[in-house]
Amino acid sequence: MKTLNLDIEQTKTKLYLKIADALRKAIENGTVISQEKLPSARVLAEQLSVNRHTVMAAYNELVAQGWVETKQRQGYTVAKVLPAYRASTSMNIILKAEDNHAWRIIKSSQDAFSRPAHNYPFNFAGGNPDIELFPFNEFRGFINDALNRPSIKELNYGDNAGFQPFIKEVATYLRRVRSITNKEIIVVNGTQEALYIISQVLLKAGDKVAVENLGYRPAWTALRNAGAELIGIKQAEQGIDVDDFESLIQQHKIRLLYLTPLHQYPTTTTLSVEKRVKIYQLAQQYNIPIIEDDYDHEFHYNSQPLPPMAANDPSGLVIYLSSFSKIMFPGIRLGIIAVDKSLATHLVSYRTLMNHKANVLLQDAVARWMKDGGFERHLRKSTRRYQRRRKCMVDLLNSFVDEGLNLEFTIPKGGMALWVNVGSQAEALSKLAKGKGIFILAESAFHLNHQNNENKFIRLGFAGQSEEKIKQGLLLLKPLFNNK
Ligand SMILES: Cc1ncc(COP(=O)(O)O)c(C=O)c1O
Predict the structure, then answer these.
(1) Closest ligand 1 atom, CA of 195?
(2) What are the pLDDT digits (tens) for 383-395?
(3) What is the pTM of this model?
(4) What domains appear along the chain, each with residue ranges and CATH number?
(5) Which residues line ligand 1 (CB under 6 A)?
């Protein structure tokens, strides 16, 4: 231990006894704990500006009293078993805990997003990437580069939107793969932070926000936290029911629309081009900004994904969100907002209230990785792998159907999960599965209004675990499915 703050009293007692007393108090009140190493006599003497022998005398006193132990060449440690508590002779008032302080909690989130799925041997949670596929060794090189050649100026305060070389890489990537141009990029600590900032900047208590009837609860929580009242839009074959959206607009003053157009969360459907056009026209007509959460666009199989709504946004009302949680891992906490300049400045300055900017060292390393091509190499590799896993899951479920089990699903064009109709037993299935060590969410977990729960669907993630695990888990699950 290097330093230790001691409260030395100003009495007429000898100095070494005052130091011993202060050390004893530090042990009694838990500043240092049993068997913890104490500062050497030299370090403590320096810190207290006293002679080293004075500190040694204090330590020897405590050794004699049984508070401190000393072993040759190992210095002083707090004794393993402390002497029984003796009434303090000091003048200090010892504060005792009566009842714990009762906090006045002004705001709290009802939905604490604990992620219990990881504790299950078979984890079919829908949005899990396979973190073991991440090229940690390769990425270490880019972290080293960022440390070896640091951008000293950028590591300081300022430039709050993000680290420019990273923004440049992301802008190029989004332009090439998502056709996004004419937007400012803001770097955030993941989509959740983006949703929080946007909600705080654009909403006030009582504002109505339209969301998909089945959707992403963490987004809803951020919106509600800003005081929003959520209005669910019916869902149909190819994304939301646009007529229902229009009639909601006529009934309520909708301030914001939150959508997952590419792979609707959780149903995996893609919002058709016709619907996108109608939704956009309505948004223009009624002045409704759209949050487009493009959370797993990276993984699209067989064909190219539809470009996002943000790619064709002449009025600049689409707020586009993308995350590195799926392509790297959720713990990376990195994401971006691509948005019209007129809103970008407000979002950046609001974010500064809670955090100056996102982690620059990390942005630097990821920018180098992207520039080198590693990011897209990893993307291609994991897309191929997830596509095989999707096939494995689809083939096995189809074989269950052939054997007469009651399962229905459409093969999603992309994403990381299947939305499977299991008849009217989704909830029971999810519960029984947990008993077998299998994590699956039923549709009830995704409904805005619980009365809409038909108890038919489960979401089966295929990306996060190996084909072997997918097979084992589904075979364990098989006896729980109903017959046709
Ligand atoms: C719909 C949706 N949006 C966004 C995210 C990513 O959020 P974040 O970037 O905060 O990890 C997820 C992850 O599960 C998601 O399912």
Answers:
(1) 10
(2) 999 999 999 999 9
(3) 0.89
(4) 15-78 (1.10.10.10), 116-126+377-480 (3.90.1150.10), 136-372 (3.40.640.10)
(5) 127, 190-192, 216, 260, 265, 293, 295, 323, 325, 330, 335
